[in-house]
Design goal:
This protein is mainly α and 107 residues long. It is built from four helices and no strands. The protein is elongated and about 55 Å long.
């Protein structure tokens, strides 16, 4: 954190948090949309949770846990939050790609 003020640091954390929430929502919605196009959950932990509790409860639970982890890590490790945001953005792009090829192939 060298070279930035507390206020500037707080602003960065808040922006990262807002982006994180948007990306969590995008991941949840794109995952559900993928299911409507005969997609499946590739994460074995999430797939198991979905089998036990249903897709929507499992996704909501995972997102609540992700937000809790964000809240913990945001102050300690902002770089981890930035990396998580990049990863979730990539997952959303991948989900949308899979949906688009499913639609184009008629599935």
């Amino acid at each position: 954190m060298t070279g930035i003020s507390i206020a500037e640091y707080d602003t960065r954390v808040v922006r990262a948090g807002i982006l994180f929430l948007v990306l969590q929502t995008g991941d949840a919605l794109s995952t559900l949309a993928l299911f409507t196009h005969n997609g499946y959950e590739a994460n074995p932990l999430m797939a198991h949770a979905m089998g036990e509790f249903g897709a929507i409860p499992a996704i909501v639970g995972a997102k609540i846990m992700a937000v809790a982890i964000f809240a913990f890590l945001a102050g300690l490790r902002p770089s981890v939050v930035r990396k998580a945001n990049v990863a979730y953005a990539a997952i959303i792009v991948w989900n949308l790609f899979l949906i688009s090829i499913g639609i184009l192939s008629g599935h």
